[in-house]
Write a structure and sequence with these properties.
Number of strands: 0
Order of helices and strands: HHHHHHHHHHHHHH
Radius of gyration: 21 Å
């Protein structure tokens, strides 16, 4: 998925909020779990060894959107009303999303040419290459399945770039107006129109707004309030988000953002507020998962498919052997993590370093 990945340099003495990075890692692993469960019947003779709760892993997308809103608001504090800062914001967003994504786009092009039945099977193996390359709204899924979320993410960035032209003091009101508009538009359910209308009207933008609001208030939340907020967020997800989790492939409408989105926003608010007042302890050791979350999100489906096909080809008499299948899944998850980390170190991080150097020259940063 998509993921907002600006470094949230928010707390004095800390390079970034560790809680945000840990949350990113959790979101990415959740999506991996969902797609692993989804791929299981295709390669393992309908023998199920993965836990059923993996089905809820697609909710990691909702958490990603909440994190995106949080990070966008916090990392642009003090930069509103400055066209130069808007330019830098868009520069950062472009280089964060596109170059790493384009690597996987180009990786899949030969597959589309040589084995088109492997791509977008749910929609008759049709792909709009122009829309896929530029992540434009389309009636078809992109060549890289998970990139549909990036199209929505890019819309968030466009709207937020517009908001950056406004004085910072009106940001809460602007987010409130955006929220009200989305509620009105989606009151009777998701609209059916051109993809270029459906994306701006997508109610999942509410999750971005919730994350932004959490960023505005987390410093004001004490430890007691953070604990209460965490309980409230978890309760909303458990008791009101269950129906949404059971059918996350359906159109989101308002139910998904107002349950999962709100619940995750409250949990993120609690998590960041707790770190602001204290620390997140041993969980801080898992920030590397957040660092590599975007690469992991982009690469994991390809690895799952490759490992599934390898198993189908070599399993032979072990095809129905449950211990062997469990062992292969453990190997598969290890390969998913290694591939995501290598993608981060060899592609994503060098690209972002190059982007910063070019930005310094283009914007004449001192």
């Amino acid at each position: 998925m998509s993921s907002a990945t600006l470094d949230p340099k928010l707390i004095p003495g800390k390079k970034q909020l560790q809680s945000i990075q840990v949350a990113r890692g959790f979101a990415a692993l959740s999506v991996v779990a969902f797609h692993a469960l989804d791929s299981q019947p295709r390669y393992f003779s309908n023998i199920s060894v993965l836990p059923g709760f993996f089905n809820g892993g697609m909710a990691g997308v909702d958490l990603f959107f909440v994190i995106s809103g949080f990070v966008m608001v916090l990392t642009t504090r003090g930069r509103h009303g400055k066209p130069r800062e808007v330019g830098k914001f868009l520069w950062n967003r472009f280089f964060r999303i596109y170059p790493t994504y384009w690597f996987y786009f180009l990786l899949l092009l030969p597959v589309l040419i040589l084995a088109p039945t492997w791509i977008n099977a749910s929609q008759g193996n049709q792909v709009d290459l122009v829309a896929s390359f530029f992540l434009l709204p389309s009636d078809l899924l992109p060549i890289l399945l998970v990139a549909w979320t990036l199209t929505i993410e890019l819309w968030f960035y466009i709207v937020f770039a517009v908001l950056l032209f406004l004085p910072e003091k009106v940001l809460p009101a602007a987010l409130a107006v955006w929220f009200v508009v989305l509620v009105i538009v989606n009151w009777n359910g998701p609209i059916s129109a051109s993809p270029f209308v459906e994306v701006p009207a997508n109610a999942m933008a509410i999750e971005f707004i919730f994350g932004g609001v959490a960023a505005l208030v987390f410093r004001k939340v004490n430890l007691v309030a953070a604990a209460i907020t965490a309980v409230a967020g978890l309760a909303i997800i458990v008791f009101f988000g269950e129906a949404t989790v059971s059918d996350l492939t359906a159109g989101p409408g308002l139910h998904r953002p107002l349950t999962l989105g709100l619940g995750f926003a409250l949990l993120l608010l609690a998590f960041t507020a707790w770190e602001n007042r204290a620390s997140i302890g041993f969980l801080g050791r898992f920030t590397v998962l957040g660092d590599m979350s975007y690469s992991l999100y982009l690469s994991h489906v390809l690895v799952l498919v490759a490992m599934g096909r390898i198993w189908a080809a070599i399993a032979g008499p072990f095809a129905t052997n449950i211990p062997a299948i469990i062992a292969w899944w453990l190997v598969t998850f290890a390969v998913v993590l290694v591939a995501g980390y290598l993608s981060y170190r060899l592609i994503e991080r060098p690209v972002m370093g190059l982007s910063r150097r070019w930005r310094a020259k283009v914007f004449r940063e001192t």
